[in-house]
Design a protein that fits this description.
Layout lengths: L8 E3 L4 E3 L6 H9 L13 H10 L7 E8 L2 E10 L9 E8 L9 H15 L5 E7 L3 H10 L2 E12 L2 E11 L11 E2 L1
Parallel strand pairs: 5-6
Antiparallel strand pairs: 1-2, 1-9, 2-3, 3-4, 4-5, 6-8, 7-8
């Protein structure tokens, strides 16, 4: 199946996923720059690269899709989908990432809803047969989110992520199209 040309908005109950706007750049940069190493082990990257990602958001570019997480009209984080040869994943496998910028927004279900919305969208549009996510073994809040949504813990990738002068173990979770439950259906997407 051909990829949809772009995602404009995926509506949920408390969050919406949407394309980024250039006006979002300062918020995204600040959020990514202040992220804890456990949440963003590779750091914020270069600002010029961030700008390119924002301009390309809403479309799969080089196997990556970036979307803003918005709640009550306010940008609170981002969610990404990565797939294909550029990401070294087999066809039909998509990997997710999520980041909520303000620690006060965590633990309220926003990240879980964003992951559920994007997972449902990927599976319903035939883009993925399997969706996976990984996180630091010690990132218990994210691990609880994945468990709660029905992702299966598949094991620990030892020494997986470079962090500072060392490497960190990451927990891998996955869900297949056949396993994904109906309650996660997207309310409306366009």
């Amino acid at each position: 199946m051909a990829l949809p040309s772009e995602v404009r908005r995926i509506k949920g109950e408390r969050v919406n996923l949407r394309r980024f706007r250039l006006a979002d750049e300062p918020t995204v940069w600040e959020g990514r720059s202040s992220a804890e190493p456990m949440a963003l082990p590779t750091g914020p990257g270069r600002r010029s690269q961030l700008r390119k990602r924002l301009l390309a958001s809403g479309r799969f570019v080089h196997g990556s899709l970036d979307l803003a997480i918005e709640s009550n009209g306010r940008l609170i984080g981002d969610v990404q989908a990565r797939m294909g040869a550029g990401q070294r994943l087999p066809p039909g496998v998509v990997e997710l990432g999520v980041d909520l910028y303000d620690p006060d927004q965590r633990g309220k279900g926003y990240g879980a809803e964003a992951v559920a919305l994007l997972t449902t969208w990927l599976l319903e549009h035939g883009i993925a047969e399997r969706v996976q996510a990984s996180t630091a073994v010690g990132n218990l809040p994210m691990r609880r989110v994945l468990d709660k949504l029905g992702f299966t813990f598949e094991g620990v990738m030892r020494g997986f992520m470079p962090v500072g002068a060392g490497r960190e173990d990451f927990a891998l979770y996955g869900v297949t199209k056949a396993e994904w439950r109906a309650p996660h259906r997207v309310a409306q997407s366009r």
